[in-house]
Amino acid sequence: MPLETWERTRQVNLDGTFYIVQEVAVQMTNQVPQGGSLIAISSISGLLGGAQQCHYGPTKAAITNLMQNCAVALGKHGIRANSILPGTIATDINKEDLKDNTKRDYMINRTLLGRLGSKSYPPLYHENPQGRR
């Protein structure tokens, strides 16, 4: 893998998440009343290795860990921090891979639900006051 691929993936996934979380956390601690919900998108690839994801998986694992640390550090300000770890979701990026039944089955078998993910809005649950219970 070219070093540029590693660096670009880290910059977009991890550094980008860090910068956004940092700015939003400052706003949430300065507002009256303090508090809010930070939600980052990680990936099941942050938990399970992938032969073609040596650059991607580590950044997603780091996002999950970042949010765990934010939850501990920011909880005293009424700020919740969560990460969502979706499995494979059909997109333009992977549509050719999903046409291959062997690859598709591999992706599906990596998930606990045994299916591809959907383009739904699980972050809304965490953002909703009912998600605080």
Residue ranges: pLDDT <50 for 5 or more in a row? none
What is the CATH architecture descriptor?
A: 3-Layer(aba) Sandwich
Total number of β-strand segments?
Answer: 2
Tell me the number of structural domains: 1
Helix count equals 5
List the helices and strands in order: HEHEHHH
Strand order of the largest sheet: 1-2
Strand content: 5-15%
The top level CATH class name: Alpha Beta
Shape: globular
Separation of termini? 44 Å
Q: Whole-number radius of gyration? A: 17 Å
What does the largest sheet look like? 2 strands, parallel
The overall pLDDT average reads 88
Remind me, CATH topology?
Rossmann fold
Assign the structural class, choosing from mainly alpha, mainly beta, alpha/beta, alpha+beta, or little secondary structure: mainly alpha
CATH homologous superfamily caption: NAD(P)-binding Rossmann-like Domain
Describe this structure in words.
This protein is mainly α and about 130 residues long. It has a single domain, classed as Rossmann fold (3-Layer(aba) Sandwich), CATH 3.40.50. The chain has 5 helices and 2 strands; from the N terminus they run αβαβααα. It has a two-stranded parallel sheet. α2 links the parallel β1 and β2. The model has no long low-confidence stretch (mean pLDDT about 90).
Task: Fill in the keyword field for this structure.
Rossmann fold; 133 residues; mainly alpha; 5 helices
Would you summarize the structure shown here?
Helices cover 50% and strands 9% of the residues. The chain has 133 residues and is mainly alpha-helical. It is globular, with a radius of gyration of 17 Å.
